[in-house]
Amino acid sequence: TIAVNMVTISPTQFAFKPAQIAASPGDTIKFVQAGTMPHNVQFLRVPGGVSLGAAMMGPFLVTNGATYSLVMDSRVATGTYDFTCTPHQTMGMSGTLTVTPRASITATR
Description:
This protein is mostly beta strands. It has no helices and 8 strands.
């Protein structure tokens, strides 16, 4: 599980910490409300052919400690995904998710 905190930096600046995330199929990204204002996650750009369905926009997290988890399942392909917090996009609350194939372990004799 990869934790991403949604934080308040100042009264007019909010952020995802970390804002740059790397994940592989099978991983879970858990967005954690760690600030004072409601936050959500909306994907603005996904790789061609990807349809996240309802996961394109997550719920608003309004209480400290509330979480939203996104599993890197069959909906997710390798590539770059840009996301934002809808109400705080103009205040710079955005990030990038890079999905890479899971490394395989090869046994040799």
